[in-house]
Amino acid sequence: MIDGLMMDFPLTLTHFLRRARDFFGHHEIVSRKGDKSLTRISYADFYKRCAKLAHALRRLGVTRGDRVATLAWNHSGHLEAYLGVPCMGAVVHTLNLRLSPDELGYIAAHAEDKVLLVDASLLPLFEKFREKVPSIRHVIVFDADSSKPLPDYATSYEALLAPEVEDYDFPHLGENESCMLCYTSGTTGNPKGVLYSHRSTVLHALGACMRDNLGIACTDTVLPVVPMFHAAAWGLTFASVATGAKLVMPGPHLDPTSLLELMAAEGVTFAGGVPTIWIGILDLLDKDPKRFDLGAMRTMVIGGSAAPPALIEGFRARHGLEVTHAWGMTETSPLGTVARLKPELQDRSDAEKLTFRASQGFATVLVEQRHTSEDGTVLPWDGKSMGELEVRGPWVARAYYGGEGKDRFTKDGWFRTGDVVTIDVEGYVNITDRSKDVVKSGGEWISSVALENALMAHPAVLEAAVFAAAHPKWSERPVAAIVEREGKTVTDAELATFLESKFPKYWLPDAYVRVAQVPRTSTGKFMKSKLRDQYGDVLTKK
Ligand code: AMP
């Protein structure tokens, strides 16, 4: 055995922070505030503010490994916490502002957060769980309005930073030290903490920058629509700082008009968000195709739940916009698989190509994939065998913070995703369901995702979510919740006819319910548990 003679240069975020300052000092981070006005800060000034934050935190007694929580929308101050906190050796913990006060109280107490950085507009939310988190000793308020007094326990972020100097002797950190803590949305059981390391985060950011993945580069203008409290904004933030890409932060304005205005005005080349965001955006573009100039857009990454083929194709065919479909989880930092069309598949029919691009794709470099049956047997990549997707790699969690959820990690070193998939001969993964959303009808599995994708291709359907309803004979049968497009209606019989040619008869939903909007989870995905609660007995009541 002979060791290589290369430097043991730790993979830490401090390198990204310095690099952005040194080479892209003039590139901007643009943030939209609550009142819709824009603020701009250069990476050179950003570095200085991260340094000031590091000094201020040290003054407050924050030391290596302490958790510093954020409760904030996407803006440059939040990004200062993303870099300033880990680079001084502490851990930034992003709290999801869409969770209930009870859940937030549980999570912040579990993490033993010591400091909280919070948007002024979210102070009332914090008030509701403050008493549950005695570990929080300092509350710092972003964007505090000088005309309104802060509560006596809080300090203004700007006042905190003001006296500090603009450089910091950032410590030499080990690359395996933790940098960020992020809890999963926790639709079953308590939320679980995923503790990213500097090394995993740096490798993930580099992975995201590969052309085969998201291809983020210094020439890009990146709009993370995905919130910074959802899986580190999919690492788009770190990838942008690493490459010096311009960042555009949408603040709290996530409606289609506000987002499209921002994309056009700032020349956004890359944007990322969950399908529900893009469904609204495509609908607005269809209604008013000339209103927004998206000429700069290179690609839009859609993930977090399955992007319907009709959505991907609608952007391409009607607006010339390319979608990149990717799959990931908080536990996988989150990039796991990306649906890139391999060159050898370019001469397939358009319909087939769309099938590949609308699949979850195949594992990115440094991630490995397999799927297993319930007894743990590794299944063949034949496009038919259905099993649970498992992944491993340097940016995949090996345990949860605090040790919960041990059953999600296999003895031979893989992470069990809970997603039920098939994998085809080319390695493309197709998610048929989250295991808890699978419809089990008379012992057969019916894919709710496949039915939803098909329904959302109907011209009168804006959103569709298929869920399991109780059935006296078959135990469960699929029921579809439908949101009709403005000014359009569709009958149940028309929907059934539309699906008939695409699926076996027993797959067709037993009932269709009309809803104004499919309920969303805290990260903007369709919340099927709520539909099940509300309509789970429609078939037994009939
Ligand atoms: P979270 O950790 O909250 O981001 O949730 C991760 C889960 O979201 C995965 O296990 C999948 O069930 C789902 N998911 C993420 N991306 C996709 C995708 N592209 N297609 C289908 N489901 C997805």
* Alpha-beta content class: alpha/beta
Task: Tell me about the largest β-sheet.
Answer: 9 strands, mixed
CATH topology of the domain at 13-30 and 38-201: Rossmann fold
Query: Biggest sheet, strands in spatial order?
Result: 2-1-11-10-12-13-14-15-16
Shape: globular
Give the oligomer, counting copies of the same chain as homo and different chains as hetero. Answer: single chain
| Helix amount | 25-40%
- Give the name of the CATH architecture of the domain at 13-30 and 38-201: 3-Layer(aba) Sandwich
Count of distinct strands: 25
What bound compounds does this protein have?
Answer: adenosine monophosphate
Query: What is the terminal-to-terminal distance?
Result: 72 Å
CATH classification, class level of the domain at 13-30 and 38-201: Alpha Beta
Q: What integer value in Å does the Rg equal? A: 23 Å
Pick out the low-confidence regions: none
CATH superfamily of the domain at 13-30 and 38-201: ANL, N-terminal domain
> How many separate helices?
16
Strand content: 15-25%
Q: Mean pLDDT, nearest integer?
A: 95
What does this structure look like?
Helix 1 crosses helix 8 (236-243) and helix 2 (43-59) crosses helix 3. The protein contains 16 helices and 25 strands. The termini are far apart. Among the domains are: 13-30 and 38-201, ANL, N-terminal domain (Rossmann fold); 439-535, GMP Synthetase, Chain A, domain 3 (2-Layer Sandwich). With 542 residues, it is α/β, with parallel strands linked by helices. The strands form five sheets. The chain has a nine-stranded mixed beta sheet with strand order 2-1-11-10-12-13-14-15-16, sandwiched between helices. The structure holds adenosine monophosphate (AMP). Adenosine monophosphate (AMP) is lined by residues 184-185, 231, 303-306, 325-330, 334, 360, 417-419, 431, 434, 523.
